[in-house]
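Collaborator request, handled under Task 6.
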Amino acid sequence: MTCKALRRFVGSFYPTWNKAEFSRLLEVFAITEDSRTTELSGGMKAKLALSIDLAPRPEVLLLDEPNAGLAPVAQRELMEIIVEKVSAAWLCAPFFIGPRRQSESLRGTHRHHSQKPNAF
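Structure tokens returned to the collaborator:
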């Protein structure tokens, strides 16, 4: 299935589906609508999933481990996109629940293993 066919299929379930927003997000993520979903990398599939999640412009968006299984660079990129999108459109209280190392890197306070932990 191509991303275009997936857009038509998934979009048919949402009365608020925004085709232009989906296409814009694909462009931001460097995914063509002619790309076959089975040929996308794990990171690109996560970005495609995020495009599908955001296209209907939901009032509430809950993402359960959106970066699970992604390479560290792809995790950072995906989280930056999520934070950018959410902060531009909605009032949000972001909570990152996951391994301590992952949440520290998202806060920009990552420390080397030999350093003592900071008190919160």
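The cover message to the collaborator said: "The chain has one domain: 3-107. The helical segments are 3-11, 19-28, 42-54, 72-89, 100-107. Please let us know whether this matches your experimental observations."
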